[in-house]
## 1
Amino acid sequence: MTHLRNDPEQQHEYPETTAGKPTVDGDAKVAARGANVFYGAKQAIKEVSLDIAPNEVTSFIGPSGCGKSTFLRALNRMNDIIDICRVTGDIRLDGEDIYDRKVDVVQLRARVGMVFQKPNPFPKSIFENVAYGPRIHGLVAHKDELDEIVHTSLERAGLLGEVKDRLETPGTGLSGGQQQRLCIARAIAVSPEVILMDEPCSALDPIATAKIEELIDELRGNYTIVIVTHSMQQAARVSQRTAFFHLGNLVEMGDTETIFTNPEHKLTQGYITGRFG
Ligand SMILES: Nc1ncnc2c1ncn2[C@@H]1O[C@H](COP(=O)(O)OP(=O)(O)OP(=O)(O)O)[C@@H](O)[C@H]1O
């Protein structure tokens, strides 16, 4: 079922199932029903319905070009900045339609933060990279509070120990892995509920990757995390739930172990056994 966005007459219907099965036992943090994403006339995501469980890591896997990143970006309206991109269907955060015209997109992106493939610190100090978000969102009244948020965020991102003596030096002077943890600290600093990660380790070496993976595991205690990854090993290591996409369709979603050991669909089986991808 496809609904047009922002149609006030539209009654949203919530089928209870995705491909005949509930995907989350309790309340979903994020729920998509019949979501479609188009770039001009090309449809990149087709009728995707899935639930993202709170305080879990969900990974999106699938062959190149299957729409993982497109769907991830639909979850915090990052696609809005692409002129030709259009989203239809229903995507909710804690039950609220994120594409409703009343939604403040800046606030939405604070609640649903994003970490990109390439670490992208601002050309500013380590401190300023983390302080920027809380400042523009008006989260702090005093310098002390800002200091506290910056320190806590760096600590949670597993970076404080390595940078506490050089907070005024440029963020761009850190190693790639440190820069990515700085970007995670920057995302955390505005107290998001969900963190979207688009191949966060693809530019990192194995040691830096292992640190980010450990961090993802620690962070799920406080946040809901969705990660796009090309690495099935990474999906198996970090996520509790996995969704497999193929040509814009969600083929199968389930607990990670089942997806990797006993998938239902031939396509999933083919992908995880390396027959295509
Ligand atoms: N800005 C854009 N404009 C037009 N088409 C796009 C744009 N971004 C992505 N696409 C197309 O949408 C489809 C899905 O792309 P997307 O990047 O979401 O896939 P992906 O599964 O994340 O791929 P990869 O694993 O290679 O990153 C592809 O056909 C891609 O060419």
## 2
Amino acid sequence: MTQPFLAGLNPEQLEAATLPHQSALILAGAGSGKTRVLTTRIAHLIQTGQASPAGILAVTFTNKAAKEMLTRLGAMLPINTRGMWIGTFHGLCNRLLRAHHREAGLPALFQILDSADQLGAIKRLLKALNVDDEKYPPKQLQHFINNTKDQGLRAKDVEAHDPYTRKQQELFAAYDEQCQREGVVDFAELLLRSYELLSRDASLRAHYQSRFRHILVDEFQDTNRLQYLWLKQLAGPDAAVFAVGDDDQSIYAFRGARVGNMQDFERDFGVDKVIKLEQNYRSHGNILDAANALIAHNRGRLGKNLWTAESTGEPIRLYEAANDQEEAQFIVDEAKALKREGIEFAHIALLYRSNAQSRVLEHALFNAGIPYRVHGGLRFFERQEIKHALAYLRLIGNTDDDGALLRVINFPARGIGARSLEQLQEIARQNQSSLWQAAKSGQLGGKAGTSIGSFLELIRAMQDTCEGLPLPEQIEHMLAQSGLLAHYQAEKDGADRVDNLNELVNAAVGFVNEIEDDSLVAFLTHAALEAGEHQAGEGSDALQLMTVHAAKGLEFHAVFLSGLEEGLFPHDNARNEADGVEEERRLMYVAITRARRRLYLSLAQSRMLHGQFRYGLASRFLNEIPENLLKRINPAPKAYYAPEKTTWAPQPTPAGSPAAYSRDSSSPWHVGQNVAHAKFGSGVIVNCEGSGADARVQVKFRNAGVKWLALEYAKLTPA
Ligand SMILES: Nc1ncnc2c1ncn2[C@@H]1O[C@H](COP(=O)(O)OP(=O)(O)OP(=O)(O)O)[C@@H](O)[C@H]1O
Ligand SMILES: [Mg+2]
């Protein structure tokens, strides 16, 4: 039987795709055809009659990857791929549990809780049990529960040696009971429940073991303990497990992924042969050389080389912008130029390390009228915390905005329950008024009346404070007064949301500077438009925005990797953890190897992020890419700082660089001057830059660290 799909494979790929029935590990670098080999092997198994489509189980990392695999299979073979067990761990477990819900102890229509729903459920639980959520922060409990489940363990399995852990253990058990009562299942539970089902029910296990004699796993390096245990349950004595992975692309250790699963796999499944693929088919030479040189800085690699038969291609373009807006503008201009050269937007990716970085990029794309899609993360103005903040702003502007009122009347929690809200809505219905008017009418008595009354007071107080202030300050006050900022600051994992809230202030600064209309209404209109427009649908030609994590396994003609600054990439959090930098470097390796033909690296000397100006030093990773592979685009090259000096502490601005200090003779501020700030207290100016509306100073505060401040808004006084 002819198998044209085997024709293009190189000898190692061919060997892997047509291996006899045995477990195997394919260990190979980025772009070497792992996913292609895995897909081709499925086609080969089916076409040679070694397996029926129903006898195959394949695990991919994302739903998108699963869909793509099915499409490719459909193109290789005249079979109906619908109904094949190809999907993510979560997707496949869901399927198993739906088919056997009774055995698994679940209602037929069990609901799945996403991460936000899960958190909500935990909060409700704490409240019902009267547990102090400051002592047991819900987010922390969520982590505790999920991490334990990801190891294949339940509350009862936790070894609790201290009262605090014992309490967490108790709450974990109570949470599981609540979920069971309500018929809901969180993500980790999907896996654990189906793993337990298989371990408990011998006949069911035997059924699936004899059915799935071929199990194939992509991105094996990122499986966690429970996923590995699940695979072991499903793989019967005559199953062949075909695992492909790349230790250099292991980027989920923070979520419990274990590269060690690879070694366990070799041992547990008697793998006697590890196949390596060393030819990269994706990228031009320069891009590959850069990736190889970078990853060589990691220790303890399993070791493999990657080469390409492609030409060296174009140099990697490196752009150093004065600030984040300039960086975004550069990306927009280059993307447009690529489009003119005939490259579709859909084949261009914009990658960043952290979600908060997308706002400036989105803004620039929006202004340029370039359609874009944000993958694996919400667009900035659609994020929960931003929506809450906007709702407060809407209320400040218009108290009759019922939608906004409902969103935040009990957020952060003020003890206004669903029952009180129902009563309020009833009164509004009777009076044919807005909720605000209904609340004001005084018809709602008792405790509900009092707490809703104080919410009205709060909004009125916010209106008073904001009166006459510039927009960015209005937002700052709103964030503080509403309790939003404090709410997210108190959450153990709220840092990202706090960053996003501060980004909203930055957005307002940018908006005011650009539009010259600092009315709240204008800003809200802008936010609504940016949220609604330019969300290009599937299939249309839109630029692809995503974090590096979300880009795993994908490839693009051109890739822009932005924000290459110490503290951003490698990320601040990782720099303090053992192995943190190595994981960041693997992430950088993943980013670089997404590019097929063209790679842009960029950084900004200063950036508005996390609520303040930051002065970023170039990422150490840039030093790890050989100079001869790089082409610097802007004319002002400057030496990079050594990685040791990687703090955000005051740095002398390099003369001649785009952000060089331009002394404004009319400015009343100068370096060395003592100043006072309403919030941060007293300090001394250590740096000045810009002039007029752009003037900023860096102040070393006695008790509040070093901060960049925009003079227009900072309200500094000489001291
Ligand atoms: N033998 C080959 N001939 C031509 N093109 C190939 C060959 N093998 C793989 N490719 C192409 O190279 C690219 C990378 O392949 P693939 O995505 O399977 O690599 P990968 O190892 O899974 O990468 P990653 O590690 O990023 O997941 C794809 O466009 C694929 O079609
Ligand atoms: Mg792949």
